[in-house]
Amino acid sequence: MSDRPALPSFIAVVVAAGRGERALQELPKQFARHRGKPVVRHSVEALLAAGAGEVIVTIPEGMEGVATKALAGLEPVRLVVGAETRQGSVALALGAITNTPDAVLIHDAARPDLPHDVIHRLLDALAHYDGAIPVLPVVDSLALTDGTTMTGTAERESLRRVQTPQAFRTGAIQRAHAAWQGSLTAGDDAQVLAAAGGTVATVEGDEALHKLTFESDFAGEIPPIRVGTGFDVHRLAQGEELWLGGVQIPHDRGLAGHSDADVALHAITDAVLGAIGAGDIGSHFPPSDSRWRGASSDRFLSHAIDLAAQQAYRIGNIDLTIICEAPKIGPHRDAMRRRIAELAAVDMGAISVKATTTERLGFTGRGEGIAAQAVATLVRL
Q1: Nearest CA-CA partner of 93 in 63, 55, 58
Q2: Which of 171, 194, 239, 244 has its CA at a distance of 20 to 30 angstroms from the CA of residue 140?
Q3: Alpha-carbon gap, residue 190 to 175, rounded angstroms
Q4: What is the pLDDT of residues 37-93, one digit of tens each?
Q5: Alpha carbon of residue 349 to chain centroid
Q6: How confident is residue 286, by pLDDT bands cut at 50, 70 and 90?
Q7: CA–CA distance from 213 to each of 108, 217, 241 (Å)?
Q8: How many CB atoms lie within 10 A of CB 378?
Q9: pLDDT score recorded for residue 182
Q10: 235: which strand partners?
Q11: What is the DSSP letter of 187?
Q12: Gap between the Cα atoms of 230 and 372, Å rounded
């Protein structure tokens, strides 16, 4: 049992009310796509996963629809229209807090990568301080300038780069923002707290908390399309049910295997896994594991599709070919297409099911088994 004290309960404020014009994106940068999803969604998901009781997101006026779409399915999340300044936006979010938690984390939406270790260090520091900020050392030499020429130097040893999220005792940061002089400009919330006499600790930050600022920060997006192939074989045996493409088909024999041996869904599953570089069906559902004895292959395909979604991909289309002498596939083709489309959450028109024989050559030609091959195309969410 760990002796580490329990972390305080916290909510988070994600500041996403700016325009982000330097990033040169079609939308404000916090709603632009980055690694397959809107920038703001990355940090909101991370904060919820870290245990935030609620995330309040400040947004620009008129962007309610865009923000709602960007954060669809995440909860508990609230949107608050921000102010002209960052400090004003945060003050509005703090004023919207209802059930007062122990702590508030305030985070820039433009920092999509948020390591949980940083959050833990920040919350730990609140046991002794009113606030805490993540910082990194300055590694370059510093110069003072008049805009054109060097006028002096600064000692980098005493300077730190400040990141977000920044953590605060809830009451302390609320009082500090209420006391802030509106004519002043606050670079961050730690400055607001310090101006009110609060104590601010520094904890180790992380280079992963890089802030997206310029157009170059949005380069290197994930490919818009990925393609995978799959192939599977099962033997025909007496006393087994025959499942193909998620549909039970009347036949004198069925396919033998550790699961329901649906060779068609197995091939599709391998195609999806292959497209995202996630191994094969055996690595996720090993035949040695008794949990999968007789299991419906629907579960395997759904798992592969969920993994693809986690990498920001959805099914574009599936092309399946079943290789056998019997049974006849034609009468069941549309039922298979319909079931596969349901599992893949796509229109039936995106699913192709074909059948062929090997002209009585090989094990399929001799009626000893059935083979299937599939191609899956994934498209970026």
Answers
A1: 58
A2: 194
A3: 13
A4: 899 999 999 999 999 999 999 999 999 999 999 999 999 999 999 998 999 999 999
A5: 28
A6: confident
A7: 11, 7, 58
A8: 25
A9: 65
A10: 369
A11: S
A12: 8
Strand pairing class (247-248; 150-154): unpaired
φ and ψ at 325, to 5 degrees? -90, -35
Count Cβ neighbours within 10 Å for each residue of 188-211 and write b for 16 or more, e otherwise: bbbbbbbebebebbbbebbeebee
Count helices and strands in the chain by DSSP H and E runs: 11, 19
Determine contact, residues 297/266, Cβ cutoff 8 Å.
yes
369: three-class secondary structure by DSSP: strand
Euclidean distance between CA atoms 28 and 67, whole angstroms: 11
Does the pLDDT of residue 19 top 90, yes or no? no
Q: Which of 225, 226, 228, 223 is nearest to 319 (CA)?
A: 228
Beta bridge partners of 315: 378
SS3 121: helix
Q: Side chain identity at 257, as an amino acid letter?
A: G
| pLDDT beyond 60 at 220 | no
Q: At what angle do helices 298-310 and 263-275 cross, to 10 degrees?
A: 10
Helix, strand and coil in the chain, % to nearest 5: 35, 25, 40
Q: How far is CA 369 from CA 135, 246, 372, in A?
A: 63, 18, 10
- Quick one: tokens of 317? 């289309």
Look at residues 17, 24, 11, 19 and name the one whose alpha carbon lies nearest to residue 56.
11
- pLDDT value for 29: 86
Integer Cα distance of 44 and 380 in angstroms? 20
So what's the pLDDT on residue 213? 77
What pTM was computed for the model?
A: 0.59
With contact defined as beta carbons under 8 Å apart, do 341 and 310 qualify? no
Amino acid at 74: L
Average pLDDT, the chain: 91
| Bridge partners for 80 per DSSP | 58
Using only the alpha carbons of the chain, give its radius of gyration: 28
User: Are the beta carbons of 7 and 118 closer than 8 angstroms?
Assistant: no
Smallest Cα–Cα separation from 304: which of 372, 241, 374, 257? 374
Cβ neighbour number for residue 37 with a 10 Å cutoff: 16
Count CB neighbours of 154 within 10 A.
12
Q: Up-side HSE of residue 308: CA atoms within 13 Å toward CB?
A: 32
Other Cβ atoms within 10 Å of 380 Cβ, number:
18
